[in-house]
Amino acid sequence: MSDDKKIPRVQLPPDARLDTLAVREGLPASPWGENSEALFLSSSFVQPDAATAAARFANEEEAFVYTRFTNPTVTMMERRLAAMEGTEACIGTSSGMAAILLLCMGLLKVGDHVICSRSVFGSTIKLLQGEFGKFGVHTSFVSQTDVSEWRDAIQPNTRLLFAETPTNPLTEVCDIKALAEIAHAAGALLAVDNCFCSPSLQKPAELGADVIIHSGTKYLDGQGRVIAGAICGPEHIINDKLVPVMRSAGMSLSNAWVVLKGMETLSIRMREQSRRALELAQWLEQQPQVQRVYHPSLRSHPQHELAMAQQNGQGGAVVSFIVQGDGLAARANAFAVIDATQICSITANLGDTKTTITHPSSTTHGRLTEEQRLAAGIAQGLIRVAVGLEDIEDIKADLARGLQKISA
Ligand SMILES: *Cc1c(COP(=O)(O)O)cnc(C)c1O
Hints:
14 helices; alpha/beta; Aspartate Aminotransferase, domain 2; binds pyridoxal-5'-phosphate; Aspartate Aminotransferase, domain 1
């Protein structure tokens, strides 16, 4: 396709850095010269004549046709995220789960085999095991941190390795580079769910990942306003394998504008929320009512060195900790800490400027059996805090209120 048949690009220096791309990449302004990106609320686009319409429907010319396939606001977000992840292309989806659904529909068929960490997002496990299991795609679930389990699980029909790092809520880190080598040696692809770090902390493509999954719902929007998702990767995967599925299946993104504007502040939010999370984690480590704290920037984190090398020296904004107590006493203590908060939002979402607090074993991991939960390290006393942008001293005080009740 010649350049005059393509949608034009924003003129940026070829060496523009991530934070510049986060603000500037997208589409050129319309003839009206708007400085803030326009929101195109139009389900279809008018074609100049029948022959051009035919060329555009046949993909011989790039243009906006129908919003299930393409929309200028969505394209702006896709170009921005692709530039930030350092991939050729990106496709926006209606949610993070829709991104994983699209990935599997586009890349897998009956008889294919997938290897996935046991510690990934719960709905990802349900989707792979339940829904795709039903269609004859088998998934082996392996350790998040033991690379040899991934290697040993390879079969002749393995097509996809699926990783998420760090994980929710225990922030366990896997070695993206090592997993990419295992995948490629077997002729398979590595997909990494980069939701917790975002490209401002971690760029999986640079470490060898083939496709990157995003829940735009989390840090990309960053203010808890929308459900959105995306897949980044090379053109031969995004354009040839995934766009055709999107055209027929329609898990299209409609909230791209909110995510697009959220991404402009992504790096400063991630840096600041990571820094505050570490400060909170260090404070929690000193509280006598707290048994254990999980955050990748803590020296006590089992994959601390790997996390710091892989995540741009930052731990991310999620801190989890276990309050003291056995069994149901631990659960009561965790509930007491959560219920004593006056600032934190009691909600399972994360990636918001508002700090959120969750009891994983009764919410996000509530559908598992107690045995499955314990195998995954989800204790009854475990609390997850996704640190936002309030003054961290106020968040410490908010947690101290409940912690003090435990010792009383
Ligand atoms: C939230 C989340 C998802 C799913 O994203 P939705 O936008 O809620 O569909 C996938 N992976 C991870 C790691 C998440 O935290």
